[in-house]
């Protein structure tokens, strides 16, 4: 008889996901919740089948015993942890043993996103995961944002804008990538100086 392959436990699923890449606690909980709910549903169905069998076997001769058994089953059901509690316990274990690290997740996300996006976009993405940058990481992003914005603009457009409309289009692109208004202004001003003409922003400042 073929042996059915055992399904992964919640802990096993969590470890498998973390082996692929770092996750935030929020993200990992979202991925594990459907499996935890399925486990509880299966346990409840199996418990219901056992209760049904017991009722068929002893309905006539052991009515009182059956009532007590069902009462115990209801008590056990009330004590059974919810899907959220089961997942939270697994996440606590993963964090305690160093498999799940929100600081490591933030570092990996910043490393992947910084060459393409500005600080506003990066902080927004992290906030959706319930993760905040350390003060040191936030300072590094601020210190490098101008250079990163300049590189992103260069990769996208190459040549400096020749008209005010083109300048506006390039500035809007950088803003859409999540770069701060200060970083965008610095990039466009540098381009204007390099071209030997003041940008509209500089003219307004004067």
Report on this model:
The structure is a single chain. The chain is mostly helical and 206 residues long. The protein starts with 9 loop residues before the first helix and ends with a helix. 17% of the residues are buried. The N terminus and C terminus are likely disordered.
Using brief descriptors, characterize the structure shown.
206 residues; mainly alpha; disordered N terminus; disordered C terminus
Low-confidence stretches: 1-6, 49-67, 69-76, 197-206
Sheet-strand content, in percent, reads: under 5%
Class based on secondary structure composition and strand pairing: mainly alpha
Q: Report, as a whole number of angstroms, the end-to-end distance.
A: 86 Å
Report the helical percentage.
over 70%
How many extended strands? Answer: 0
Mean pLDDT: 82
Strand/helix succession: HHHHHHHHHH
**Tally of helical segments:** 10
The biggest beta sheet reads: none
User: Radius of gyration in whole Å, from Cα?
Assistant: 29 Å
Cα shape: elongated
Task: Write the SSE topology.
Layout (H helix, E strand, L loop, with lengths): L9 H11 L4 H34 L4 H17 L3 H14 L5 H12 L5 H10 L6 H23 L6 H13 L4 H14 L5 H6 L1
Helix pairs in contact: 1-2, 1-4, 2-3, 2-4, 7-9, 8-9
Quick recap:
By secondary structure, this protein is an all-alpha fold.
């Amino acid at each position: 008889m073929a042996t059915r392959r055992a399904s992964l436990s919640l802990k096993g699923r969590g470890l498998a996901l973390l082996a692929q890449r770092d996750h935030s606690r929020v993200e990992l909980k979202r991925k594990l919740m459907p499996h935890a709910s399925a486990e509880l549903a299966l346990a409840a169905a199996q418990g219901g089948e056992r209760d049904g069998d017991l009722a068929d076997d002893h309905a006539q001769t052991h009515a009182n015993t059956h009532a007590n058994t069902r009462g115990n089953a209801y008590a056990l059901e009330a004590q059974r942890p919810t899907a959220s509690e089961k997942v939270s316990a697994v996440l606590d274990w993963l964090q305690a043993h160093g498999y799940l690290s929100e600081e490591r997740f933030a570092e990996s996300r910043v490393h992947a996103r910084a060459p393409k996006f500005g600080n506003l976009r990066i902080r927004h993405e992290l906030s959706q995961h319930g993760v905040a940058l350390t003060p040191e990481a936030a300072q590094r992003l601020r210190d490098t944002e101008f250079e990163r914005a300049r590189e992103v603009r260069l990769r996208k457009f190459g040549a400096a804008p020749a008209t005010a409309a083109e300048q506006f289009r390039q500035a809007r692109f950088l803003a859409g990538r999540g770069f701060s208004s200060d970083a965008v202004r610095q990039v466009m001003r540098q381009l204007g100086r390099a071209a030997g003409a003041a940008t509209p922003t500089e003219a307004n400042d004067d």
